[in-house]
Amino acid sequence: MPKIVRQSTSRAPTAIDQMVGEKIRRLRLDRNMTLAELGNELGISHQQLQKYETGTNRLSAGMLSNVADVLRVPIASLFEDENQAQNKTADPSARARAECHSWIDRTGSTERLGMMAKVLKVMSAD
Question: pTM for the complete prediction?
Answer without folding.
Answer: 0.64
